[in-house]
From TrEMBL:
This is Hypoxanthine phosphoribosyltransferase. Pathway: Purine metabolism; GMP biosynthesis via salvage pathway; GMP from guanine: step 1/1; Purine metabolism; IMP biosynthesis via salvage pathway; IMP from hypoxanthine: step 1/1. It comes from Streptococcus massiliensis. It catalyses: IMP + diphosphate = hypoxanthine + 5-phospho-alpha-D-ribose 1-diphosphate; GMP + diphosphate = guanine + 5-phospho-alpha-D-ribose 1-diphosphate. The gene is hpt. SUPFAM superfamilies: PRTase-like. It is found in: Cytoplasm. Keywords: Cytoplasm, Glycosyltransferase, Magnesium, Metal-binding, Nucleotide-binding, Purine salvage, Transferase.
Length: 180
């Protein structure tokens, strides 16, 4: 049923799993003996983070934030709002933000500034998708699985009006769906 709204599959489930395995191996190496806090940005990061942590072979902690900059629709509002903050102190800790997509960069730019203020030992970003054409602030992820063109994508955690998150792949949503 959901497939009828998809213009094309951009990244298959199998490709995502392979990328998560490769990134997990890199993170295992980079964070060995550092016990980082992986911070998932809800709701979109859940599928990617769930796949990624299966492939990290060192101690990690997880926490989650709910941060919104879209407030419905297809474009960032430019106003980042923290709806749920972390449950723990990050001072002196290594923090790795885990995101589904980096588009404008505003959300992560604001969060990196906040966590620097909170005195995290290090702050890095891992993302499933990077859409550099959408950037309005200077920020680059430290770890990227896929760079994508400036198209409206859904699936594997990414949504349009809270729908399509459960697709097992990343697909381009047909324009007629979000321009109605």
């Amino acid at each position: 049923m959901l497939e009828q709204d998809i213009k094309k599959v951009l990244i298959s489930h199998d490709e995502i799993v392979v990328a998560a395995q490769q990134l997990g191996a890199q993170l295992t190496h980079d964070y060995q003996d550092k016990n980082p806090i992986l911070v998932g940005i809800l709701k979109g990061s859940i599928p990617f983070m769930a796949e990624l942590i299966k492939h990290i072979d060192t101690h990690i902690e997880m926490d989650f934030m709910i941060v919104s900059s879209y407030h419905g629709g297809t474009e960032s509002s430019g106003k980042v709002k923290i709806i749920k903050d972390l449950d723990q102190d990050v001072a002196g800790r290594h923090v790795l933000f885990v995101e589904d997509i980096i588009d404008t960069g505003r959300t992560l730019n604001d969060l990196c500034g906040l966590f620097a203020f909170r005195q995290a030992a290090s702050i890095k970003i891992a993302t499933l998708l990077d859409k550099p054409e959408g950037r309005v602030v200077e920020i680059e992820p430290d770890y990227t699985c896929f760079e994508i063109p400036n198209e409206f994508v859904v699936g594997y955690g990414l949504d349009y009006e809270e729908n399509y998150r459960n697709l097992p792949y990343v697909g381009v949503l047909k324009e007629e769906i979000y321009t109605r």
